[in-house]
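Standup, Tuesday
Yesterday: got the pipeline producing structure tokens again.
Today: sanity-check two examples.
Blockers: none.

Example 1:
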Amino acid sequence: MRLSVAPIDFDQAAAFVRLHHRHHTPPVGHKFSLAALLDGKLVGVAIIGRPVARGRDDGLTLEVTRLCTDGTKNACSFLYGAAARAAFALGYQRVGTYILKREPGTSLAAAGWKLIGEVKGRSWSCQSRPRTDKHPTEPKLLFEIAA
């Protein structure tokens, strides 16, 4: 049995995230999404979009805003590698992603991504625009891969 990659539309990728992601809802949009298939069965998705942090949104950087699998062995590192190759083929120079500090990052390291640093977790809510947090507000680790 071997993993293969295929394009997937945003609605299908978002539905998979809603079903399987441990702590996130789907993002609002994407540049593109990829599916990991095992013998034709959908076992994971990567949703790739513009960086969430304005300072990283330079037009040459993308971000894996969601990566989600059903637990299939090696599907995470497979999708991180596929996302980077697709982004570089489109002319982007860097791809980043954030994971919770308590997560090991093994799949990212296996795919050749490097730990860039730690960012403080915070709420998106502010006095001028109150919001209900639907995401973990704990510290996160930023990983990146460059072309």
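Example 2:
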Amino acid sequence: MPKVILKKYVPNLGQEGDVVTVRDGYARNYLLPRKLAVPAKGNALKMIEQEKRSRDTRLQKEHSEAGALAARMKDVEVTVTKRADEDNTLYGAVSTSEIAHALVAAGFPKLNPDSIHIRAPIKRVGEHVVEVVLAKGITAELKVAVKAAV
């Protein structure tokens, strides 16, 4: 049975960088053709270690940048303008992409709208709080002011 080094997470097998022993056919017909693993020979172990170190440094840098961004977001309030009736009820709920565009307009880097979590649909004019996931384990509370368009 050959030993392979996983290049990506494989369910029920292991994480990226793990050295695992698998059956010959599984490695030859599934893992290797899909570039999920490489044979554990010669320089492959050194190459995987180097990739792991560079990935760890990149993740550490992204984590520190996300922490700084979260600290900046704590004191910011973004404004979204939508049409509303005379009772201050919006004609449509505020979407995560509208909040992401408002963040860009406020001078923040472009965020994926999927990283913005709205607890309950925003359907009224006023101030609301949403959660923004910036990195694994780092979230920020963002104040969103919804105003009626005239």
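Quick observation on example 2: Residues 70-148 form a domain with the Ribosomal Protein L9; domain 2 fold (CATH 3.10.430.100). The chain has a mean pLDDT of 88.
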